[in-house]
Amino acid sequence: MDQRLKYIDQLVASLSAGDFDRRFSLSDKLDDTDAVIGMLHMLAQELKEVTISRDYFTNIFNAVSDMVLVLSGRGIIEDLNLAVTERLGYKRQALVGRPVDVLTGEGWASMLRHMREDRGPTGLVKFWNKSFREAAGVSFPVEMTARALPGQGGRSKGAILLTAKDVGPRHEAEGRLLRAVIDGQEEERARLARDLHDGLGQQLAAAKFLVATAVADCRDLGLREKLAAASETLTDIIRLKDGICYNLMPQTLEDFGLVPAVREMGERLARAGVLRVDVETGRAFPELPRPLEIDLFRIVQEFIANAIRHGEATVLQVRFAGHGEDVEVRLKENGKGFDLGLIHGPGRGLRNMQSRIRSHSGALVLNSKPGRGTEARIRVTVNS
């Protein structure tokens, strides 16, 4: 048997085992058998280069800190990098072949529709306010991007490259900063309210007393009328000061908490003939941390101001409810309402409401339709 045929068998065995460096010398015949050996040498070199490129790509794929998944056009996970398994706690085989819904909790059809509608000029689509679910069942916020891939390298036609960045730490840092800013503002409001009440308030009360005494002792009718007018002006100033102090920090909120403060605000508005406010509290509504009480009060205050100023509402309902560790506040007014689809970004008031509730990792949902009033639902986990 020709020794070269044994060389061919050995080369084929080496290629099958992944050894691409084995070589044999050609004979002087340079016949078809030598041609086969030469072709096997060339094949070994090509396979070696492909393997190096594949390993290089795999190393880069797994070195990326963001989570990267390759999905089929039907949303089935075909491949994933190490960051996915390390961050989510899944084994690779537990995810490959499964729908991406297991991570996102969202139907693939809605995500695919989003991709078709919002794809940019480069084919890149960004998904905001999404979350991934760990193997332990805990969800955390992510920012995702998606891009269509060509159907090459064993990928199915219409494959999609999905990347996800864990933004939980960033959200926590932003929340701490936002919380510090809000707390600083509220402390300054409380300090200013105390200064106005204890300092300016006492001086105005003293001036009012002195003017009233002068009115009683004055014998000159013309001067008495002027002093009486001055006394009424001081009374108006004191009322104005009380209103400013109330808006800065209601004493009822500091002394008795959220629900009594909202009831008091409703009674003030009813006495002024501005708006009727109905307040209802469920039995399970818990005692809240002071920063959360202040923020919920400010949100109710802002909602009422908008109901009066823009909605021209006459009745507003406030419902406080507790569900385990979650608390819910529902606000509903009977004003003009508006079309949410026509709003180009939230106004300052709504941004302030969203910022306050976001600092507690809560959620605020606003619903409104023309002629049907406006409703807001706020939900917060107290012990988060």
Topology:
Layout: H1 3-16, H2 32-63, E1 67-71, E2 77-80, H3 82-88, H4 92-95, H5 101-104, H6 108-118, E3 125-133, E4 139-148, E5 160-166, H7 168-217, H8 221-248, H9 251-256, H10 258-271, E6 276-281, H11 290-309, E7 315-323, E8 326-333, H12 348-358, E9 363-368, E10 374-381
Parallel strand pairs: 6-7
Antiparallel strand pairs: 1-2, 1-5, 3-4, 4-5, 7-8, 8-10, 9-10
Helix pairs in contact: 1-2, 7-8, 10-11, 11-12
Structural class: alpha+beta
- The CATH superfamily of the largest domain is identified as Histidine kinase-like ATPase, C-terminal domain
Assign a percent range to the helix content. 40-55%
CATH topology name of the largest domain: Heat Shock Protein 90
Describe the structure.
This protein is of the alpha+beta class. It has four domains: 3-62; 64-166, PAS domain (Beta-Lactamase, 2-Layer Sandwich), CATH 3.30.450; 169-249, Methane Monooxygenase Hydroxylase, Chain G, domain 1 (Up-down Bundle); 252-384, Histidine kinase-like ATPase, C-terminal domain (Heat Shock Protein 90, 2-Layer Sandwich). It contains twelve helices and ten strands. It has helices at 3-16, 32-63, 82-88, 92-95, 101-104, 108-118, 168-217, 221-248, 251-256, 258-271, 290-309, 348-358; strands at residues 67-71, 77-80, 125-133, 139-148, 160-166, 276-281, 315-323, 326-333, 363-368, 374-381. It has a five-stranded antiparallel β-sheet. Strands 6-7-8-10-9 form a five-stranded mixed β-sheet, covered by helices on one side. A hairpin with a 5-residue loop joins strand 3 (125-133) and strand 4. Helix 1 (3-16) packs parallel to helix 2 (32-63) and helix 7 runs antiparallel to helix 8 (221-248). The model has no long low-confidence stretch (mean pLDDT 82).
